Amino acid sequence: MDRLSGCCENMNLPPCVWFEGDKRNAYAAIVSGFMFFLGWWLLIDAAAVYDNGISNVHFVCGIIGTISLLMVNSVSNAQIRGDAYDGGCLGPRGARIWLFLGFVLGFASVIASCWILFANFVNQPNVKTYPGVALFLQCAFIFIGSTIFKFGRSEDLWG
């Protein structure tokens, strides 16, 4: 064992760009993108495996969650505070309303998918529950990815 303990001490690895300096924005983008991908992947998997489990109407929750992700992350924190946005007919108040509506859509998609899970999949006899669980997890992962992308980034690094 003593001969193997020093075998990796002389190994030189090239520096990794991802671990140099402050990479908070990159990490937030990677994690939130993976959560978004995983959510849609689960629902597409459930639709492919269970033909009778997922109908076209069940995709609406994920689409509303995706619209929520776009709405929440299209407004910067400076616009919310009123530092960088004076134009338009509503100014910072309009940006706050837009952000609020984005979060309302995100919560609504999660709540609607939970309702569909219990109403159509859990309480029904002889029905597989995985499509309902996949639908709920899709909306939950999209919402979690949206909040990670909104609050995990640092806007100070943009300048």
Write up what this structure looks like.
The protein is an all-alpha fold and 159 residues long. The chain has helices at residues 2-5, 24-49, 59-73, 77-81, 92-122, 130-151. The chain has a domain at 42-152. Helix 2 packs antiparallel against helix 6 (130-151), helix 3 runs antiparallel to helix 5 and helix 5 runs antiparallel to helix 6.
Reconstruct the topology from this structure:
Blueprint: H1 2-5, H2 24-49, H3 59-73, H4 77-81, H5 92-122, H6 130-151
Helix pairs in contact: 2-6, 3-5, 3-6, 5-6
Query: Beta fraction of the residues?
Result: under 5%
Radius of gyration: 22 Å
Largest sheet: none
> What do the pLDDT scores average to?
86
**What is the first-to-last residue Cα distance?**
52 Å
Low-confidence stretches: none
Helix content: 55-70%
Shape summary: flat
Number of helices: 6
